[in-house]
Amino acid sequence: MLVVAALGGNALLRRGEPPEITRQVANIRTAARALAEIAREHALVVTHGNGPQVGLLALRSGDPLYMLSAETEGMIGYMIETALRNELPARDIAGLLTQIAVDPDDPAFAAPGKPIGPIYDEAQARRLASEHGWTIAPDGDGYRHVVPSPRPLRILEIETIKLLVQSGILVICAGGGGIPVIECETGWRGMEAVIDKDHASALLARELGADALLMLTDVDAVFADWDGAKASPLGAVSTDDLHEHDFAPGSMGPKVEAAIDFAEATGHMAGIGRLQDAAAILRGEAGTRVTA
Amino acid sequence: MLVVAALGGNALLRRGEPPEITRQVANIRTAARALAEIAREHALVVTHGNGPQVGLLALRSGDPLYMLSAETEGMIGYMIETALRNELPARDIAGLLTQIAVDPDDPAFAAPGKPIGPIYDEAQARRLASEHGWTIAPDGDGYRHVVPSPRPLRILEIETIKLLVQSGILVICAGGGGIPVIECETGWRGMEAVIDKDHASALLARELGADALLMLTDVDAVFADWDGAKASPLGAVSTDDLHEHDFAPGSMGPKVEAAIDFAEATGHMAGIGRLQDAAAILRGEAGTRVTA
To answer: Is B114 noted as a catalytic residue in this protein?
Structure first.
């Protein structure tokens, strides 16, 4: 069985945690234990988010977002690769830089909606917005830097990823949703955007013909009626059931959309749940399991 | 024929140039044209330095050097991959994160000797050294941040690189000399060091059984009597001839050592010269060609 597992950026750097490398390394060790449990039985491809990390790099540097995404593929990919190697010493593990084509006319470019980096109070957020030219938007009790998040259309390295998977190599790829690129008259170039890693992972899982897609985060499951008094976790659920609910666009929304996308396109299961439950979600014993 | 080509960090960001991304992208386009000329005829693996870039990241961030090396593998790897794809649209190209094992007892850890980042005047250098805890050393007319540069011993992803090369994929790997790691009781971990990319490239070329190793930089050839009045470029030269000369430890020294290492271990040619002459060096028409 081939499993694509997407690690939330928050699984690497939790909300409110200081961004020290030692902290991220410790969190990734926890993630690697959960993933190794799956990799001992199945072929595994790991993807990861970069929201907290790319936001911090944007604070330090005026470099464009595609370049910062490339930097986070290096740093987070390295941390995951090392942590997985320490759990699975005999396994070949490869971290692959990944570029994903997007549509230059994607409406997301005119409506930045993906929050990255820390949560600021309003005054801080307004100062940073004017300093860096950022768009900001409310998030929870504060404000965050928001960036365009276009739909992923094509993974440029897909043939290489297939080859590695077929050869039994554990692959880390599509980090941060992939580096967003477009093809224009002068060739390929990067775009000022961050692709949603759940959508990128669903595309990857479809193209690889994966048997399951896991989206791993810091909550137990998708909750129906999330904001209401009767919030209840969803277990086994059909894509039809999910179409009846609304989910927060910033966090659970993209996961639910990606799960529906994968389940409807392939007939296979997409799971959403807590990182530590990864193997249990796959066995149908935890998290939300979405099928068509 | 399989060629390993190592791009100097200075080929990407020339001495004294402002570190804007647009500048690096333009320089890398020039590099990609030279490399594509080789890739149209031969299997090619590209490695690259990161001296200027890792030094700039160290100015912005307190993160350890192995993490900054990982970031530069992402950013420089992305730039090279895109530039090569624009020259060779039909070719599969893969940028692989690469970790290289070093000896924790390598004497380099007690004697930082590899310069990274910009050249500073003495006052600036002393201020930065005390601010960041850097070791500094004279370089040309000024001072630079110097870091430990241990010998590369083993490329952790070598089996993956071999597989990709055998499958006809153009591989970018061992960027910045690879991310330096050691194996300790608790597993693999990163080290506060930057491996010399020419030594890493010679190790890679040996392990891949490459037919030629090219070290591409911004000078025409290795010069005998570099500092003297009778400086003359070396063309075809034997490793025995080279043993008779001394070369500057910061720049040409590691290239000459790496060339001797590769040529003596394999009996094949190691070339050193100008990036734009890459194909001509391979044909024996430019640069310094070292054989055993």
So the answer is: yes
What amino acid occupies position B289? R
Q: What is the pLDDT of residues A129-167, one digit of tens each?
A: 999 889 999 988 899 999 999 999 999 999 999 999 999
CATH number of the domain encompassing residue B84: 3.40.1160.10
- Among the partner-chain residues A21, A67, A94, the one whose CB lies closest to the CB of B67 is A21
> Quick check: is B161 in a domain?
yes
Rounded CA-CA distance A51/A198 in Å is: 12
For chain B, what is the domain count? 1
- Residue A99, domain member (yes or no): no
Range(s) of the domain holding residue A26 = 2-94+157-177+195-291
Order of strands across the sheet with A99-101? A154-155, A99-101, A179-184, A187-190
A24 CB contacts (<8 Å, ≥6 apart)? A12, A13, A53, A79
pTM, 2 dp: 0.96
* Catalytic residue flag (residue A50): no
A10 counts as catalytic? yes
The answer to whether residue B269 sits within a structural domain is: yes
A208 assigned to some structural domain = yes
Count of beta carbons in the 10 Å neighbourhood of residue B154:
14
Q: Which of B8, B117, B197, B271 is catalytic?
A: B197
pLDDT in tens, B175-213: 999 999 999 999 999 999 999 999 999 999 999 999 999
Look at B60 and A61 and tell me if their CB atoms are within 8 Å: yes
Point out the residue among A78, A163, A179 whose CB comes nearest to the CB of B97. A78
Query: Is A159 in contact with B92 (Cβ distance < 8 A)?
Result: yes
